[in-house]
Each structure stands twice: as C-alpha cells, then as structure tokens.
C-alpha cells in the first residue's frame, strides 16, 4: 500500500471517529430536539448512522464519477490504472475499521454477526485493491451499493423519533429504500457477474494468481448472499408499510414497539 492510500485510510478512520463523537451530536441537536430525548444506547446508534450516511454519500458519488469518467479503469477492469479507485477504497476501509471498533465497544446493543461478516469480507477483498492495485473496476462497481445506505439509515431515524409508520415521509422513504436497494444491489448482479465471467481464462485473470482470484470470487458471493437476505427483509417491511400492516399509533412518552427485524439493520451494506 502506498503512502497516499495509507494516509487516506488513517485520515478517514480518525475523521469518522471525530464525526461520531463531536460533529454528529452538535449537528443532530441543532436539527431536531428529539435527538436530546433519546436514551444513551440510541444516541450511540444515531451518531453511528449519521457517520454511515456521510460515508455513503462521499464514496457513492465518487464511485459514480469514476464509473462515468475514468476511462483507464473501464477499459481494463482487472489491471486498469487504479489511482482514483484506491483512494475511494481507502476511505471505505477507514470507515469499516472505525465501524468494527464501534461495534466491538457496543456489542450488547449494536452487535450483529452478519454485519461483522460483511465488513470482514469487504476488507479482505479491498485489501488486494490497496496492496496490489488489482480489479479496480470491480471494486468500484461494488461501491455503487453505498447509494442505498442513506435510505436505510433514514428509516431508523424516523423510528427513533417515533414517527408513525403510516406517515407520508416514512412511507416515501420506505419505498425509495426498497427501490434503490434493489437497483444498486440486486438488479446489477447479472451485469456484474457477466463481467466477472468474461475475465475467466484470460491472461489478465491468470496474472492475478490464486490468492486474489479466491478473495475476489468468495467475497463477492458472500456479499451477494447478504444483500439478498437484506433485500428480503426490506421488501417484507416495505410491504407491511404500504399495506398498512406496519402502521401504529405511538403514545406520547412510550417507546415504539420494536420490529422483529430492527436489530441494527445494516447501515453500511455494500
């Protein structure tokens, strides 16, 4: 890993820590008075999800820029010039490390084994991008999935603030979340795997070596399985909201009932 990528990774790790502990509490208190009335466990997750949204917007938009304008990466998906992709991946790796530390420190309230598997699989695969500069197109393509994260987090914000599930904003966000999640995580699977299979047997693929090949394919399979599971849960929740089965009236001063799927629903899903 070059000094530039290492600096970006470390800087993003520290930056996300500061955003979590300093910027998020101040910004959230200024935006909504409901933030200050949350219990301490929810304050932690609120700040975590705000950081997640910021990361998703930065990385997701950077990803689209690379996909549209980085001709070198698009021309050679296995060995194209990885400069911009490595910067984007370094930001994501810094975020993943920050989030793993946060999960470890708050495991009793935020722990999720699927979430940890997701992070470790991503770090394993992205490590090859940072250290060897391989597979830049595929690494960048994977980061498109970040564009669904803000909607997932917004759903949690609405629930934390006790918005009724039949509220127009909640319904609109739920539908948008399901649609965007499907588009950037599920609908792209055939195109992504077609590009993967097209490299099999080529000199570029053989040049990767067995280690990189296994890391690439196994991590992609694991992430797609997780994305499919999360898509099922999101679709089920969206159906309940649209049909009115998820609506509820929240009495003032009482905590909203928890959904069976609510335990720390993935707020980084890539």
From TrEMBL:
Q: How does it sit in the membrane?
A: Multi-pass membrane protein
Residue ranges occupied by any TLC domain in the UniProt entry: 41-243
* A cellular-component GO term for this protein: membrane
Would the keyword Membrane be found if you checked this record's keyword annotation? yes
> Which compartments does it reside in?
Membrane
Q: Where is the signal peptide?
A: none
Name the predominant localization: membrane
| Keywords recorded for this protein, A-Z | Membrane, Transmembrane, Transmembrane helix
Record-annotated membrane-spanning stretches: 46-68, 89-109, 121-139, 170-193, 213-232
Extent of Basic and acidic residues compositional bias = 249-270
- Name a biological process GO annotation: lipid homeostasis
What Pfam families does the record tag this protein with? TRAM_LAG1_CLN8
Positions of region (Disordered): 248-270
Q: What name does the UniProt record give this protein?
A: Transmembrane protein 56-B
Q: Which organism is it from?
A: Larimichthys crocea
């Amino acid at each position: 890993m070059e000094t530039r990528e290492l600096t970006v990774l470390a800087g993003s790790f520290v930056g996300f820590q500061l955003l979590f502990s300093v910027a998020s509490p101040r910004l959230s208190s200024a935006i909504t008075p409901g933030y200050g009335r949350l219990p301490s466990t929810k304050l932690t997750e609120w700040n975590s999800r705000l950081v997640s949204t910021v990361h998703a917007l930065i990385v997701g938009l950077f990803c689209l820029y690379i996909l549209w304008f980085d001709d070198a990466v698009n021309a050679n998906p296995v060995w194209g010039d990885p400069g911009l992709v490595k910067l984007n991946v370094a930001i994501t790796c810094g975020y993943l490390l920050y989030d793993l530390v946060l999960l470890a420190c708050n495991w009793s309230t935020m722990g999720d084994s699927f979430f940890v598997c997701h992070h470790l699989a991503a770090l394993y695969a992205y490590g090859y991008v940072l250290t060897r500069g391989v597979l830049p197109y595929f690494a960048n393509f994977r980061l498109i999935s970040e564009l669904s994260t803000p909607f997932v987090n917004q759903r949690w914000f609405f629930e934390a603030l006790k918005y009724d599930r039949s509220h127009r904003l909640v319904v609109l966000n739920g539908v948008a979340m399901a649609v965007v999640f499907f588009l950037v995580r599920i609908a792209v699977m055939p195109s992504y795997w077609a590009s993967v299979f097209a490299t099999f047997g080529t000199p570029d693929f053989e040049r990767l070596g067995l280690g990189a090949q296994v890391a690439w394919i196994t991590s992609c399979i694991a992430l797609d399985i997780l994305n499919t599971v999360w898509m099922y849960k999101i679709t089920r929740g969206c159906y309940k909201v649209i049909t009115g089965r998820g609506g509820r009236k929240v009495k003032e001063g009482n905590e909203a009932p928890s959904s069976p799927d609510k335990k720390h629903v993935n707020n980084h899903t890539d």
